[in-house]
Amino acid sequence: xxxxxxxxxxxxxxxxxxxxxxxxxxxxxxxxxxxxxxxxxxxxxxxxxxxxxxxxxxxxxxxxxxxxxxxxxxxxxxxxxxxxxxxxxxxxxxxxxxxxxxxxxxxxxxxxxxxxxxxxxxxxxxxxxxxxxxxxxxxxxxxxxxxxxxxxxxxxxxxxxxxxxxxxxxxxxxxxxxxxxxxxxxxxxxxxxxxxxxxxxxxxxxxxxxxxxxxxxxxxxxxxxxxxxxxxxxxxxxxxxxxxxxxxxxxxxxxxxxxxxxxxxxxxxxxxxxxxxxxxxxxxxxxxxxxxxxxxxxxxxxxxxx
Length: 306
Fold this sequence. Notes:
Blueprint: H1 2-16, E1 18-19, H2 21-28, H3 32-44, E2 49-52, E3 58-61, H4 74-90, H5 94-111, H6 132-146, E4 148-155, E5 161-174, E6 177-184, E7 189-194, E8 198-207, E9 229-236, H7 241-248, E10 253-256, E11 259-267, H8 272-277, E12 283-287, H9 289-305
Antiparallel strand pairs: 1-3, 2-3, 4-5, 4-8, 5-6, 6-7, 9-11, 9-12, 10-11
């Protein structure tokens, strides 16, 4: 009984995306307290259900959450919908009609593909990504195209966890990373959010009117202040050229002698030293001296642990 009701609540949330706890309790003949307990258990299982008060309040499930596509193949979707449609034409059963509409909506969502740049397909997710990143991209793309407000659950680089309402203006792809530039209602200013750091995103049901803006309004040195950037010159061995080009960009690398050299400005964010070391000595620091020394000390520390 318990898990049957929990699954029905999940199905209802996937259909409506937002509903009150009182409505759920009334529909399934349980107490509001029981509804909250079920929601807690769903969260433990990794289902992003949230309870919020105020203007955007209610029980919501992130628009980025979907059931695994393996539940049905496309052929099974079509066959089931056709069978339900035939049944609905013979009997007036609201449950049959509701089931058909749910499956049609689900099938439409599954067929919809991300097309941020026309015929160009860009996958910004990590290797082995289960589809969660793609779902976040779909939601952000739809919010940008339709001027829809989003409630996002965001984790900053410093580990700060926050929920905020944003008006997404544009998607940005830089150095193999996707960002969304948006007006943040919490901070009352435009900010750039890394999509990979958005844990979940939910449409609030509100829309916004875009103000005029141009490329110069968007600061593209994301998150970094001037004192967090460093001018670097690197020497790159030929066997590591392809990987270095993907990291640094082809335009920043020039041939020199039997190898290559790159001179550019990089964020000195604590990851730089590890990134250089990951090339196993095929990328060497020429300048600045302090960065060269930090790489040397980190390499010695690694050697001591072997």
